[in-house]
Amino acid sequence: MKKLLCLLAALCMAGTMVTALSEEDSSIADIAGVVMITYNNVPWNFPIDPMEMDPDTIFMVNKHMFLSDDYVPDDLVEMKKLKLDKDGNNTSGGVRMVDGTWQLQRECAEALVALCDAARAAGHELYLKSGYRSYYKQAVMYENRLEKYGYDDGWVTKPGASDHQTGLGCDVVPKNWTDRGMNEDMAKEAECQWMAAHCAEFGFILRYPSDKEDLTEINYEPWHLRYVGNPAATYIMENGLCLEEFQMQLQAAVEEFLAAGGPSFLVEGFVQVSAEDKYSRY
User: Fold this and answer.
1) Do 117 and 17 belong together in one domain?
2) How confident is the model at residue 260 (pLDDT cuts 50, 70, 90)?
3) Structural domain of 27
4) Residue 142 lies in a domain
5) DSSP secondary structure, 157-221, as one string
6) What is the DSSP letter of 253?
7) CB-count exposure of residue 31 (10 Å: 0-12, 13-18, 19+)
8) Phi and psi angles of residue 96, each rounded to the nearest 5 degrees, phi first
9) How far apart are alpha carbons 82 and 227 in whole angstroms?
10) Residue 144 neighbours by CB distance under 10 Å
11) What's the CA gap between 53 and 35, in Å, rounded?
12) What is the Rg, in whole angstroms, of the alpha carbon atoms belonging to the chain?
C-alpha cells in the first residue's frame, strides 16, 4: 500500500495518468460471469485487481528469492503484551507471547491482534512465538542448526531466505505448545485448525502447507502465518495455493499485461527481484 499511495500521489502532483486511468478503466463480464478488469483497454488477467494488492505485503522470500543482508522493514513495531479487563476485553492492543517481545510490520501486527482476539472469542488462546528476525540473527540460527545436525534438515532456512526477515511472518502456537519443540503434530490442535480456517479473514495465509513442500522447500509448518492482505489471502487459501504458486500466476499476469501495453506504474512494484545469495557456499 505504501508504494501504491506514494506513486499515486506523485502522479496526481504531476497531473498525469490518474484521471485518465479512472476514465478508461472498465470491467466487462464474460458469458461465464467472470469479471474482466481492463486498464487503458488492456485486460488484467489475474483474479485480483492490482489496485487491491500491496507490493510491500505480497512479495515472496524463499530459497531462490533472497532479501539483502541490510534489508529491514521500515515500519516495525514492538508487539505489546496482552492485558484483559474484567470483561475479557483487550485493553492493551497486545497478544500473548512465549518469550520476551517480538516485532512485526505495523499492518501485520494490527492484523495479528485482531486474529488473536477473534480466536479468544471462539475459545482459543494463541501465543506469538516468533516474529521479525534480522538477516544476522537468521545466520546464527542457520549455523547452529548445521553444527547440530551436520546438514540442512529443512527446518531453519538460510539468511536472506527467511520469511521472518520480512516482518510479515510469525509463528503462532497453542498454549500447550509454548514450551515444546514444534513439529507437524501441532496441526491436530484445535487452535491450529481454527487458524487454518480463519486466518485469511485477517489477511494471513499458512505460509508452508503440508501438500506444498516440493514448492516451498520447507517442511510443513502449521504455526507459520504470513501476512499478505485480505484479497491475496482469501484467493490463496480458498484455492489451496502456496505463495510460490500465487507469485507464479501473478508474475505471468504482469508480464502479459506489460507486453500488451498496460500502464507499467500499476504493476512494476509486483516484479520480484532477488538479492545476492550471500550464503552460496552452502
Assistant:
1) no
2) very high
3) 2-54+245-270
4) no
5) PPTTS-GGGGT-EEEEEEGGGTTS---GGGGGSHHHHHHHHHGGGGTEEEEE-TT-HHHH-S--E
6) H
7) exposed
8) -75, 140
9) 20
10) 11
11) 17
12) 20
Both 26 and 125 in one domain: the answer is no
pLDDT, tens digit, 9 for 90 and up, residues 116-143: 999 999 999 999 999 999 999 999 999 9
pLDDT of residue 275: 93
**Amino acid 153: pLDDT:** 75
Higher pLDDT, 261 or 1: 261
215, 114: one domain: yes
Q: Is 157 domain-assigned? A: no
Determine contact, residues 77/104, Cβ cutoff 8 Å: yes
Q: What is the pLDDT of residues 93-116, one digit of tens each?
A: 999 999 888 999 999 999 999 999
pTM of the shown model: 0.89
Write the pLDDT tens digit of every residue in 148-175.
888 777 778 899 999 999 999 999 999 9
Are 236 and 249 in the same domain? no
Contact of 274 with 66, CB cutoff 8 Å? yes
Q: Tell whether 21 and 34 lie within a shared domain.
A: yes
How is residue 144 written as a grid cell? 547452529
The answer on pLDDT for 276 being more than 60 is: yes
CA distance 83 to 85: 7
Residues 106, 120 share a domain:
yes
Q: Is the dihedral of CA 202, 203, 208, 210 positive or negative?
A: positive
CA 88-93-99 angle, 5° bins: 95
Annotated catalytic sites, by residue?
Answer: 221
Three-state DSSP state, 96: strand
In this structure, the answer to whether residues 117 and 6 fall within a common structural domain is no
Structural domains in the chain (count):
2
